[in-house]
Design brief:
binds zinc ion, four-stranded antiparallel sheet, Alpha-Beta Plaits, Arc Repressor Mutant, subunit A, two-stranded antiparallel ribbon, 18% strand, 3 domains
């Protein structure tokens, strides 16, 4: 199996980054690659998890929101814990764990009170050592963080051991979804673990109710070609 990107993939991705609504036929004619190839390549990049979805880009200024860049200092060992604590807050738009023992957090809000409550919540997190925040006055550039230069490759980690998969990986399909493993040993162990988890999920925990809120809350506006 091929676990890397080639020029065709990168060309397709650039077209999609430019216009997520472009049809396979549009892309095909723009980059001179057959429509079935475009379709197959896009499907492969969706399967591997590189294409996460198709989204809409809004003008934040036009929405009249206030944005703040917040820098949070914490001990290196606590950074992930702090990020985990704040990531589900609706005000938090982006979180980057930085190398110098800090977290950069981009926040957007309409209501000053909500922001105050958010800051009060942060004050309750003992792992936070220090915070600095600055208001965003205007944006001079806003692009997706994923940059598609010619060097862009694919980095897939083995679902079992977590190591980066080199040339020969194993791609298996379980319950309609692809899973990627680095070698046949990991594949065997992963299959066992998967079956075990599936069995225990089917056997026990009947108390798990599927709530319609939980199901719909995650629905993003994805469009299919
Ligand atoms: Zn592995």
């Amino acid at each position: 199996m091929s676990l890397n990107l080639d020029d065709v993939d990168r060309k397709i991705l650039r077209e999609l980054q430019e216009d997520g609504r472009a049809s396979f036929r549009d892309i095909s004619s723009r980059i001179d690659i057959s429509t079935p190839t475009v379709s197959a390549r896009v499907q492969a990049m969706v399967d591997v998890g590189l294409i996460k979805g198709y989204t809409v880009t809004l003008d934040s200024e036009m929405l009249g929101q206030v944005s703040v860049a917040l820098l949070i200092d914490a001990k290196p060992a606590d950074l992930d814990k702090v990020a985990e604590r704040i990531k589900d807050d609706e005000l938090v738009r982006q979180i980057y764990v930085l190398s110098d023992s800090r977290i950069l957090c981009m926040i957007s809000f309409y209501n000053q009170m909500k922001y105050q409550r958010f800051l009060e919540g942060l004050a309750q997190i003992p792992e936070i050592v220090k915070m600095d925040n600055s208001m965003v006055l205007r944006s001079a550039k806003e692009s997706q963080r994923a940059a598609l230069t010619d060097e862009a490759g694919l980095l897939i980690r083995c679902y079992y051991c977590g190591h980066v998969i080199k040339d020969e990986g194993v791609k298996i399909k379980l319950d309609g979804k692809y899973h990627y493993l680095c070698c046949s040993v990991c594949e065997k162990l992963y299959r066992e673990k998967y079956e075990k988890l599936k069995k225990s999920a089917a056997a026990g925990v009947p108390a798990v109710r599927s709530s319609p809120e939980a199901a719909t809350a995650k629905t993003s506006h994805e469009h299919s070609h």
